[in-house]
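Reviewer has doubts. Consider these tokens.
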Amino acid sequence: MTTRREFTTGLAGAAAAYALRATGEETITPSVFGGIQVGVQSYTFRSFDLDRMIGAMRSVGLSSVELWNGHLDPTQASDDDFQAVRRKLGQAGIVVSAYCANFPTDASDEHIERAFRGAGLLGTRVMTSSVEKPILPRLDAACVKHKIRLGLHNHYLGDAWFKGDKAQNFETPADFLDALKGRSEYLAINLDIGHFSASGYDPVAFFKEHHPRIVSLHIKDRDTDADRSYREFGKGATPIHQVLRLAKQVGFKHAVNIEYEMEESDPTGGVRRSLEYIKRGLL
């Protein structure tokens, strides 16, 4: 039996689709392949505003986004702003799989509260974040309060841009596992398989053992040269297809997100090629 809420939601979706047809635009076909939701981390489109990013996603065929705070800053956005962004994405057929909000160690209580509230307004119960370890108790408390899972993001700390304290950041398996000890079930992992591989660790083995605690996969390809250079998908050393096949095998329920670091001024073509490579690993 269809509930009133389901009926109302259906009417809203139909109205959005009608509005798009009226302007000559169609909603994006859901980008689910082999049962896996494939999306993009919007940092990929860091040189684009939201409208241009939506256009690029429509042209590529991606219906899911991990929305980065560079496109929607929780310290500046009101409830209305979050809701307006959700409507705009929804009208294009794009769902927000996660809200990526990064926090400085001394983030204000208001900053944290606005970000977690914003995730709910965007329609997701998943967040991701690049943070340092001292802020974890405060973030875990916010996770419990809002019933939102937050995935901690790892980096390759050998990159030239990194000038911080490696002991306070996330790179190794131990960094993740030690940080989660004694925390609530809501604190989780956002595994960037390209950075993990560049750091000398096996993302296939780690994902196999810890996938129940992983709420987002970032997919990129890095090589084994001195700079751990970014490569086109399939041309580096990151075992992308092996991770994807394992995700399919275990029925991974969260999004697999392209994070394409190259061609910053316009990564659309690279994202399109990346999606085709991912599809070959899932279909």
